[in-house]
TrEMBL record:
TM spans (from-to): 73-92
Keywords linked to the UniProt accession: Membrane, Signal, Transmembrane, Transmembrane helix
Extent of the signal sequence: 1-20
Domain of life: Bacteria
Protein known as: Uncharacterized protein
Length: 105
């Protein structure tokens, strides 16, 4: 199970790095800071899954849950959210080192 969380962490890290690189390139070419919101990235990659998430949240938790996600999470810069998800999945999949040490029996 830890392996699955670590793989998800790696995937979010890779996608977040790509999103950050795209924002950096756009910022340099426009000579101003450009931060692409998560909603825009998600809509470009897979608009159907965004609509599925909306219907799932509204069905299970009510319309207030979707409005909260729409107001708080989706306007944030995409690479920041992806890096945060990568960190969360890495922390869940992290294995603490043994207290006895590396060469303990």
């Amino acid at each position: 199970m830890r392996l699955a969380f670590r793989i998800m962490s790696l995937l979010f890290l890779c996608v977040g790095t790509i999103a950050a690189a795209v924002d950096a390139i756009a910022s340099v070419s426009a000579s101003r800071v450009i931060l692409t919101p998560l909603a825009s990235i998600w809509n470009d990659v897979s608009p159907a899954s965004l609509l599925k998430l909306q219907s799932m949240l509204e069905m299970r938790f009510g319309p207030a849950a979707w409005s909260t996600v729409q107001d708080l999470l989706l306007p944030q810069p995409g690479f920041v959210v992806l890096f945060a998800l990568s960190l969360v999945f890495w922390m869940v999949g992290y294995k603490k080192p043994s207290l006895a040490g590396r060469f303990a029996a």
